[in-house]
Amino acid sequence: MQEKGTISIHTENIFPIIKKFLYSDHEIFLRELVSNAVDATQKIKRLASLGQYSGELGNLQVEVAFDTDKKTITISDAGIGMTAEEIKKYINQIAFSGATEFMEKFKEAKDANEIIGRFGLGFYSAFMVADKVEINTLSYQDGAESARWICDGSTEFEITEGTRTTRGTDIILHVNAENEEFLDQYKLQQILDKYAKFLPVPIKFGTKTESEEDGQDEEGKTKYKSVEVDNIINDTNPIWTKAPSELKDEDYLNFYKELYPFSEDPLFWIHLNVDYPFNLTGVLYFPKLKNDYEFQRNKIKLFSRQVFITDEVKDIVPEFLMLLHGVIDSPDIPLNVSRSFLQADGNVKKINTYITKKVADKLAELFKNDRKGYEEKWSDIGLFVKYGFISDEKFYEKAKDFVLLTNTEKQNFTLNEYKEKVSALQTDKDGQLVYLYTNNADQQHAFIQSANKKGYDVLVLDTPIDNHFVSQLEQKLEKTSLKRVDADVADKLIKKDEAPESVLTEEQTTKVKTIFDQAINKPAFKVELESLSPDELPVTVTRDEFMRRMKDMAAMGGGMSFYGQMPDNYKVVVNGNHKLINRILNEENADAQAQLAKQAFDLALLSQGLLTGADLTEFVNRSVNLI
Length: 627
Hints:
By secondary structure, the chain is an alpha+beta fold. The protein has 4 domains: about 1-205, Heat Shock Protein 90 (2-Layer Sandwich), CATH 3.30.565.10; about 240-375, Ribosomal Protein S5, domain 2 (2-Layer Sandwich); about 405-495, Rossmann fold (3-Layer(aba) Sandwich); about 505-545 and about 565-625, Heat shock protein 90, C-terminal domain (Four Helix Bundle (Hemerythrin (Met), subunit A)). It has 22 helices and 22 strands. A 9-stranded mixed β-sheet has the order 1-6-5-4-7-3-2-8-9, with helices on one face. A 5-stranded mixed β-sheet has the order 10-11-14-12-13, with helices on both faces. A 3-stranded parallel β-sheet has the order 18-17-19. Helix 11 (about 380-390) crosses helix 12 (about 395-400), helix 11 crosses helix 15 (about 465-475) and helix 17 (about 505-520) crosses helix 21 (about 590-605). The longest helix is centred in the middle third of the chain and has 24 residues, at about 345-370. Belongs to the heat shock protein 90 family. GO terms for molecular function: ATP binding; ATP hydrolysis activity; ATP-dependent protein folding chaperone; unfolded protein binding.
């Protein structure tokens, strides 16, 4: 048997295009060829189960081998094999609708995954690394003859009689000079670990040395000997393929350690298992995050029938759940296509919605069944919940019942509970409920103490996304605003009808303002005199709540760059009713007045962490001289 011919692809330029476009991601050739071998193996098992194949199945494993001298990589299986006619049908006739359309579509292709998935080029990815590819195969069919196909990367092929005597297929890649890096055990092991770690058919890659018992010595101690065994690189039955009822907590934790060997144990997990209206399995873990969430992304691995595809799961998983870890496996996700197509796919949207619902239901269940345990985990899971609360309306509808607000006393409240707690004291004269918060309890300690003296409660909102969380609360909660506790003096944070009368005359007020203006002498700091309680601080430095919030959002890249470029401005509130102001007025020496005013101002800055550099040094030296 011998035949020569031309591969039917409607264009002479297929191989240069493959090599050019696929070169940047050429390691996936091994994923594609091993996956094909696994498919062939599963097909023979399926035929046997249906009674359409009665022969011995034998050792159904896929083997990957390489030969540095011959510069070959071989992928072998004991699957269904092919006849010469099937080679012509499945290998030679690449089904493109035409050269023009093919070339046009290739212009839009961004990476190897997209090209291979869209045009069925799995087998031809071999030519990314090889200048000649051989197929040596024997079909499972009775009376079939072995066949050998060879192609040198042009559109010319040759089919002759093969040498296989057992059912299955060998794919032999003659690696080209540019890709000899793949003729390396460590490199191939690395790729197999990445893409084939959980394939459903055993993948053998060489051998490894293990110890086994070898009787006992004269003293009755167990002896061991070294033996060479097959190096099977994969777990054919990972936990996401099993029913939750078959698994224990230990199984989930062990699998997590296998995926992320250097991570702390997760807080809890969700087992995904649905077969209608789409097929999806997987396990999602809630890791311990704290505030370093930017370093935790892209930890969800996407599989298709246990073949690793990518850890870029944006669109499949809601944005706020990109912080989760784990695996998702679905044959219904349109793989290897452009992002715009992925976003528009109906199954992707359904899966996205399903995952959101499963996570919300799990959190609601934890909150309802074990609130104490839920609160203990809040410092870790709060980031997920707030992120979803902000970014996903469907998640918000559920999360509003289990999102927690934590105050400076480390007490936790639901939204309804907190409203009930503070309504009486923290409603202003216009009927607006005001929530006070700090983003740095140590730096804003003096402001918190002033608020507490008035009976006000202060929340702690100090995570990277709390600026956005604050805005969302104001949008969602009726007649409610949030103010950072250092946005104004305590008497002014929540406006009431009553206000202390000023003890200063109009002339004294003007004189005090002039003294402080001259002592501070900084354009960014505007001095204002207020009639406050004598127990309040003599000088307080505040920033406008709106401007500060806009600048904070700009610093986080929140699309407020205009505000980010504006200079910082502060209000210096001088408490005209404090005894220090009276002392300043009674000083006859102008220098003494200025020194007292400057010292009070610097103390206010120091209490908020705003006194730095040369100003701090000068303050310390001045204070030492006063002692």
